[in-house]
Amino acid sequence: MSKGYRVFSSVFRILLLIFVFVPILWGLRTSLSASNMDLNIIPRQLTLRNFVFAMQNQSFLSGIRNSVIYAIGTIALLLPIIIPAAYAFSRMNFRGKVLSKMLLVLPLLPAIVILIPLSRNMNAMGLLNNRMGVVLLNVTFQMPFTCWLLRNFFQSISVSIEEASYVDGCSRLQSIILIILPSALTGIVSIVVFSFISSWLSYLIPYTLITSMNLRSISQTLLGYQGQFGTDYTRLTAVSLLSILPPLTVFCLFQKWFIAGLFGMTSK
Fold first, then answer.
1. Residue 95 has what DSSP assignment?
2. Residue 38 domain-assigned (yes or no)
3. Which pTM was predicted?
4. Rg for the chain (alpha carbons), in Å?
5. CA–CA separation, 176 vs 242, rounded Å?
6. Tell me: the pLDDT tens digits for 139-168?
7. How far apart are CA 15 and CA 7, in angstroms?
8. pLDDT by residue (tens digit) across 51-110?
9. Cα–Cα distance for residue pair 192/181, rounded to 1 Å
């Protein structure tokens, strides 16, 4: 490895860190300021009152609670659907299987293209202003990518291990539960992390289906801190920083499995 390459690599990493962390640090600086008008790099007066306000604000706490419900509900509904589907794509031969690669194309479609017709269907089923409607649409949009991701993990498991379980008297269902799922645990964890973060950061789906204040997600709640005649950016940045803590914590705890899952997908 040449010296010039090492220098270029070091400079690139430093610039990348600056690009990522400067907005977060500036948001932290703003949230600790006592006034919007304090533009010093280090605020003249440091205060925690904006964080105290967030933790005591009912709309913020409601948004956090609803986002947790949406994320966990999406995961609970998504896994029972994609596990048998991914297993079928990896182990079974059936007519039309060649079209399974279309699963990677579907997430590239703009959500707004099909969201309006879907919202009309949700209205017809009485799922507007309903948590289940948000969960169903989250599952709909996440299903193609996560199914393909888990399918690659199933394909990486040797078929001979599964056939050996048949010889020992296992049924196909028992083999899936006892052999396939434990072997693909890394992939399942990466899907859980991806689904949680995607559901937490989702804005378009809750915005389309939810108008009730007590059902709004955290992304909708943050929008409410922007006033018509002015915005208190000290409070807005405080609640924004607190709102990213749950997905950031989940990613930090399971980052090894999440990254392994992405590499498992791209290597196939």
1. T
2. no
3. 0.86
4. 23
5. 40
6. 988 998 888 888 888 888 888 888 888 888
7. 12
8. 998 899 899 999 999 999 999 999 999 999 999 988 888 888 877 777 777 767 777 777
9. 14
246 and 68 in contact (C-beta within 8 Å)?
yes
- CA–CA gap between residue 202 and residue 73 (Å, rounded): 14
Strand partners, 33: 46
CATH number of the domain within which 225 lies: 1.10.3720.10
Question: CA 125, 220, 61, 196: dihedral to nearest 10 degrees?
Answer: 70
126 φ/ψ sector (left φ>0, alpha ψ -120 to 50, else beta): left
Number of Cα atoms under 13 Å in the Cβ half of residue 203:
7
Q: CA separation (Å) from 127 to 12, 91, 197, 227?
A: 48, 36, 23, 29
Asked whether the beta carbons of 141 and 77 are under 8 A apart, the reply is no
Q: Is residue 11 part of a domain?
A: no
CA-CA distance, 133 to 129, in Å (whole number)? 8
End-to-end CA distance of the chain: 29
Q: How many other C-beta atoms lie within 10 A of the C-beta of residue 168?
A: 9
Residue 1 lies in a domain: no
Q: Which residue has the tokens 């605020």?
A: 43
Find the length of the chain: 268
CA angle, 33 as apex, 32 and 38 as ends, to 5°? Answer: 155
What residue has token string 């010296």?
A: 3
Q: Write out the two tokens for 78.
A: 């998504």
Residue 33 sits at φ, ψ, to 5 deg, of -85, 155
- Residue entry with tokens 């997905």: 247
Is residue 28 included in any domain, yes or no? Answer: no
Rounded Cα–Cα distance for residues 257 and 259 (Å) = 6
